[in-house]
């Protein structure tokens, strides 16, 4: 078996590409949840040891963060979906109004990819005879009509992954003993960030160590900043 055939992330593995994209989005959402909630709670915990105050801030952060992630993803993906549907409708009109020009355009695309004019014309004609709209959407726009993005799926996936990522630092902060709260939250958050960095690198086929180092450094910086801010407003009685 060659090295090429062994790679699980080659573009020709079509059915898996969309799934990998969703998994990557989930990893990013989880990472956002970890950093956002951990940084918030570390800042609050550095300012006060009042468990109720920390709990209220954590719940508010979870609600605000998950809603923001879900709504943002819904709006973004809805715009993408509207654009894709508009392009599909335009392509369908052009195929009805100008079929010869569209066939020539498809032929030109395959010639540009390296096929001879005769082969490109034959390929364009056979694809058009089989499914003209699919042939043009794939060649011209890299769109599959059956795979148009769903904003509700994206919103739910983003919200769920954010909550899943935020759960570890939130529960650690709330359940840990006050004397160990900050230390355990920071350690748990860094471990979780390293895990999401490794998962993202694995799914993307990139260097795992580089990804882990980048995400841990970035997350640690966020925790350090909010800890410093919280310490400035520390209300603990000495």
Walk me through what this model shows.
- The protein has helices at residues 3-6, 14-47, 51-97, 99-112, 117-130, 132-141, 151-175, 181-204, 208-232.
- The protein has 238 residues and is mainly alpha-helical.
- The chain has a domain at 16-83 and 149-232.
- Helix 3 (51-97) packs across helix 4 (99-112).
- It starts with a helix and ends in a 6-residue tail after the last helix.
- Mean pLDDT is 83; it is low at 1-15.
Name some characteristics of this structure.
238 residues, mainly alpha, 9 helices, elongated
Radius of gyration: 25 Å
Determine the number of helices (DSSP H or I, runs of at least 4 residues): 9
How much helicity do the residues have? over 70%
> Hey, roughly how much beta strand do the residues contain?
under 5%
**How many strands in all?**
0
Helix-strand topology string: HHHHHHHHH
Average pLDDT number: 83
Shape assignment: elongated
Q: How does the helix and strand content classify structurally?
A: mainly alpha
Write a short abstract of this structure.
The protein is an all-alpha fold and 238 residues long.
SSE arrangement:
Blueprint: H1 3-6, H2 14-47, H3 51-97, H4 99-112, H5 117-130, H6 132-141, H7 151-175, H8 181-204, H9 208-232
